[in-house]
Amino acid sequence: MSESPAAATGSAKVTKTQRTPARPLSLDQRIAHLERAIHRHQSTIRFYENHPRLLRSAKHRRASRAAVRRAHRGLARATRVLTVLERAAAQRDALRLARRLAKAPPKTAICHVFGRRYCRQALTVSWCESRHRTTAQNGQYLGLFQMGSYERDLFGHGRTAHRQAIAAHKYFVLSGRDWSPWSCKPHYGL
Length: 190
What we know:
The protein has helices spanning 5-9, 27-50, 52-56, 61-102, 106-130, 149-155, 161-174, and strands at residues 137-138, 141-142. It is an all-alpha fold and 190 residues long. The longest helix has 42 residues, at 61-102.
């Protein structure tokens, strides 16, 4: 009996049963998997609620009650894990948003922080104060909204447009949302 060329060289042929292990599921895939499991468990419970005779019948009682118990346990476990994973996904998404906003251009950062209602006004004030430059300086006044050293100590400041917009928004809200602290005022007739 002769050896095959693969056996002679020492290399083994990979069969279908010798596949590499599956890659771990992503967070979103795990959430989707748990949501499907929860739906299955709820469907099982609902089925037996709609067919109570199966729980009472001598022939099906044991299997039916066991199925309901498994469904309740599985539902509780999947719900607990889903809550944890959804919290982790929310934190991940918040971190991604923070990273994206840290790199955002001034107009984007200002509109994100001030919201749709005050976006235009904030852009007008920022343009008048600094021409949308985060590095603008006029004596002690710095940044997009030219906040003084006292205001920067109170409300914060940062190098990015997003951080400067957050600080200006805090000041804006505390001042009554009327732009009174700034020498530049938005044109309210827009």
